[in-house]
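Weekly puzzle thread! Below is a chain. First person to post its structure in token form gets bragging rights.
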Amino acid sequence: MAALSDPISDFLTRFKNATRAGKEEFSAPFSKIKADIARILKEEGYIWSYEVDNDGAFPSLKVKVKYTDGVPALTDLKKESKPGRRQYVGVEDIPKVLGGLGITILSTSKGLMSGHQARKKNIGGELIASVW
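Winning reply:
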């Protein structure tokens, strides 16, 4: 397998592809930041659950995609910050996705959190992704 230059984008793309293909779960190589993104997606209701699988030579993250009556909870997502062009926002500049129906994921000095959590804590950071 080829080396990835952006593993977070790979994780988000696997999530989007799994929902569009109707898969019940998908797996990705484990990292702490991917586990934090999965935690946020679970808290916000986009996935059922996630777990770390240590069976193989390298740990992997298994994620169960959420469907309601056959319709995925995820409509779409967009990776905002890229390795060549990081995007930082202050607390007043955190975007609202679809008028508040979606979420943003931010990397802050207090860890990864959703946009509305960052607004509550009055903290900005790197805008990782928008999910709706």
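Puzzle host: Confirmed. Bonus trivia for everyone else. Strands lie at 25-29, 47-53, 60-65, 67-68, 71-72, 77-79, 88-89, 103-108, 111-114, 125-131.
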